[in-house]
Amino acid sequence: MDSTIGSIRGRKSREIATTEVVGLSGSSTPLAPSVRAVERAMEILMGLSKHPQGVGVTGLAREVGLSKATIYRLLNTLVTRGFVERVPGTEFYRLGLTMFDLGMAVRNRMDLVREAGPILKEVVERTRETVHLGILDNGEVVYVDKLEGPGAIQMLSRIGRRVPVHCTAMGKVLAADLPAVELERVISLRGLKACTENTITDLELLKAHLREVARQGFAVDRVEHEYGVQCVAAPIRDFTGRVIGAFSISGSILTITEERLVEIIPFLKEAGAKISRRMGYRERSGAGRVG
């Protein structure tokens, strides 16, 4: 009995000892309990990744150096959230479909730039304007690619720059595909700041506007984000039909006029459909989720 308790205490001590981080000065600092739990959960996921057919708790505990009690506790949470699943009819555990979804999200982001590239070049050649490619990340649009048009005005945008959702053409296209609850979470997080006098700052008006964006399949930024600049954007969908990105044509209000928008929009939508097909999308009726 005493030897068993001593063994458990020794193992717990080793677990705590391994959850220290080295600071900039070289000294080690114990991690907070919540951070330790996250680190241990990550160790479990990494351990499971080595066993596609599954592994038992004893083997997993041995591999990652944690007690079986800790493994059981964290596995229960990971199973509940879909990160881990129990192999039917066994005592084994393996990675769950939530991990697949996360992996596909990363893959889509990496594939998106490559697959969109040739078509975006065609858009630049045809319009001679600047083209941006973006994704939604933590309630903001992130530019993942930018192609300068030969006749375009100099723009301050750059790859990696973050811009608001509610007042940019790409942002509105991305937001139009969000469930209503997720849209409200984004707005609660980021707000509806007025960037110009044309910015929509009322949530109900924005919702109505996004329903129209979803219906028509494109969005226009009519000097809503930057003075003197107009943009038009189209969605990019993956094989599930979900909007995973957007691209926009941006230019001066002197070149992106209302008359020119009429000419650009059909070509824009066609280009978006081409990229979506390259991402595995097959057209079906219905789009957009804002309600």
Describe this structure in words.
With 291 residues, the chain is an alpha+beta fold. It has two domains: 2-95, Arc Repressor Mutant, subunit A; 105-278, 2-Layer Sandwich (Beta-Lactamase), CATH 3.30.450.40. It has helices at 2-17, 33-49, 57-64, 68-80, 97-127, 169-175, 180-190, 203-216, 258-278, and strands at residues 20-22, 28-30, 84-86, 93-95, 130-137, 140-147, 162-163, 219-222, 229-237, 243-252. The strands form three sheets. The chain has a six-stranded antiparallel β-sheet, sandwiched between helices. A hairpin with a 5-residue loop joins strand 1 and strand 2. Helix 2 (33-49) crosses helix 3 (57-64), helix 2 crosses helix 4 (68-80) and helix 5 packs across helix 9. The longest helix has 31 residues, at 97-127. The chain is elongated, with a radius of gyration of 25 Å. Mean pLDDT is 85; it is low at 1-28.
Distance between the termini: 61 Å
What's the domain count? 2
Order of helices and strands: HEEHHHEEHEEEHHHEEEH
Number of strands: 10
Secondary structure tally, helices: 9
CATH 4th-level superfamily of the largest domain: GAF domain
CATH architecture classification name of the largest domain: 2-Layer Sandwich
Tell me the overall shape: elongated
Q: What's the story with the biggest beta sheet?
A: 6 strands, antiparallel
Average pLDDT for all residues: 85
User: How would you describe the oligomerization state of the chains in this entry?
Assistant: single chain
CATH class of the largest domain: Alpha Beta
Strand order of the largest sheet: 7-6-5-10-9-8
Low-confidence stretches: 1-28
β-strand percent reads 15-25%
**Helicity level:** 40-55%
- Give the radius of gyration: 25 Å
At the third CATH level, what is the topology name of the largest domain?
Answer: Beta-Lactamase
Helix vs. strand class: alpha+beta
